[in-house]
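Budget justification, computational time. The allocation requested in the original proposal was used primarily to generate structure tokens for proteins on the priority list. As evidence of use, we reproduce two of the resulting records. The first is shown immediately below.
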Amino acid sequence: MHPPATPSVPTRGHPDVLVIGGGIIGLVTAWRAAGRGLTAAVVDPAPGGGAARVAAGMLAAVTELHYGEQTLLGLNLASARRYPDFTAELEEASGQRIGYRRCGTLAVALDADDRAHLRELHALQTRSGLDSQWLSGRECRRLEPMLAPGVRGGLRVDGDHQVDPRLLASALLIACERAGVVFHQEWAERLTVDGGRATGVELAGGEGLPAGQVVLAGGSWSGRLTGVPEAVLPPVRPVKGQVLRLRLPRMPAGSPAFLSRTVRAVVRGNPLYLVPRENGELVLGATSEEQGWDTTVTAGGVYELLRDAHELVPGITELPLVETCAGLRPTSPDNAPLLGPSALPGLHLATGHFRNGVLLTPVTGDAMAEALATGRLPEEARPFSPARFTAQGAERARVPEEQPV
């Protein structure tokens, strides 16, 4: 069960909602809260940053399905269905495109083991009522001629799309500003608690900032905010991902694109994706490393990504490498987000989205706005209440920090 409603306490001259964290999750929360008539503020030294600056932006509810995550699948699908309307609304509010493309995804196998794994995934997708089509290796190469001759088969998923997370973050920032959201470009040093209720934050410069309700949306850092009672701290840890950006060639008129859709594979046991952008960029990723708070781009990470991508698409090594970067995915013990009221009255959580933060942006914004306005989560978000990690549920769900997910 999620906590009972905790209506906002009026704070004259201060915001109804204070969001800690200015990444896409914090921004969409503030924007949607403002849309519900609440005054909102965001605390972040560099709003518009966060893990989204590194993310590939795949809206992959189907191809991201993993065993044991069928409950999360429902939330992912709900958010994916909202993306067309969400895109139109956000682009109108901000005056900026966000790179939404209905290009589909092709997940391929390079050897017999990977082919067997894809077959199992296809069966799981089918049992889950999802739409995916099995293709032979030849059919895969007909769709994407740049694929290696050794491709043994694949899954075509036309319903998995993409968005450019950097454009998404920029558009949300503009939309928030136009909606009257106030930005405090400082670190939140401490949560302030009075009478057993969250009442605001203390900024790094020492200034106190009261608010009616507080939303902790600090990504991987959400579990480290001073002042949050230990029993309420979200069990979120960072999982490092290294990503490369390459420049696609200009193809002659009438020639097929280098890649026309997102291509995914598992190469030597390593998940790999290639995401072609409208702007001529190709995003290649991503590693998954339990390295704590380290965001160093390593030679080994770059080498492994290029090696595996070359095996999948041999022509990729001829492309210019324009950027290398690394970020931290905020990861919960069950790989699903923590949404809504916490056990501390006045404090809400919006964190732990792991690899689905971009995909879950629309549904998160709607769920958090509902919780902030009414004190209760909508039905579809209730399985992701922070309450699932309290008391007996915490020990049952917890994964040791040193164990990769």
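The second record produced under the same allocation is shown here.
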Amino acid sequence: MGRGDGTGRLVSAADADDTGAGILHVDMDAFYAAVEVLDDPSLRGKPIIIGAPEGRGVVSSASYEARRFGVRSAMPVGQALRLCPTAIVVPPHFARYVELSGQVMQLFRDVTPLVEPLSIDEAFLDVRGVRRLWGSPGVIARDLRRRVKEETGLTCSIGAAATKHVAKMASTISKPDGLLIVAEADTARFLAPRSVRALWGVGPKASEALESRGIRTVSDVLATPRPVLERALGPAMGERIWHLARGIDPRQVDTLRVEKSVGHEETFDEDVTDAVVLRTELRRLADRVGARLRHGGWEASSVAVKVRFSDFTTISRSLTLSEPTAVGQRIGRAALDLFAAVDQALPVRLIGVRAERLVPAGAAPPALWDDDEEWRRVEDALDGAAARFGRGAVTRAALLGTARGGGTLPSHPRVPHPEENGSDTDRARLGRRASDE
């Protein structure tokens, strides 16, 4: 099994059997760090941390040289520098990442229209229907890797298999800059020795629950009765693991990318104890979330808040709204209600607001009256002012003053649509917690 630092990687031989391996998972290698090296070749071969060079931000990405010291995404930059004192901290350039992501995704769509972006730097491709145009899956994967390198200067890793699950596992094992093909007939043999932690969607808690029962590999899962799995993980997860261990994954490549949530979070330069400051930040974050929802044509059915305390304990709270909304005022009110129920025993390091269970704007049945009509008009006017004069030209009076953190960045990466050119840095900025491996 390959590791996040690139050790233990496996790749296929040039003549590997690719029969039935029509699903590709393409993952850019340490994407943010690779883009920085592309733009500054003097960084090549050095341990690089992408994050705020000052303050208390977290690692957005790290080069493989830094990862070998234990540096990981979402780790505090200070901790990363203690692990790797020689690392070079490079501030993120989000607009540039979006620009190159758009180029890469277009290369994918040049091969097949069946492309499902998972994040800014990875996607599934269904190439079963383009064999006559481009060749077998192995030929397509090799040609795609070559084109990405030649046209962008970046490297990617590709897993080819009969299902999305196995293709994603294969790409992870082949990283960095590799190709691993799992023929359909070889699926069971490929899966058997893998750790349960390698199964897509099996998180740390589920892994610990399995390992505490001696279930450490996929082979162990195969030997475990289904009722035992369901007792350990719950009926839904137990059933899912039972199928995945057998290579059963009916999910198709879905070209209709749907945002699952929209969020913003703030890491403060200093821990905050002032409840007034925290409530003001929640309002600001909620306004940003509402603006992103309106821009994307979405409404939220529920709202969640995230609070990280000075000891790094992190909690989340959520509630369902009476009706979907993209109004920042309503989102903020819900966030404040959630925050009021949080026991603030320690100073706060990070705070966030997230809109969840998104639906297309206007999809819900109209209410008899609109409680948010006045605020909707106000926020429409703010959107117009932002489009004409830039974000922040008009804001709440309570939000004026010295910034206390590193900026309200989205908590989830956003994939550029095919028609976008990636030049709008505000609409397409990325979060500090990218799944950039």
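A brief technical remark on that second record: The longest strand covers residues 348-360.
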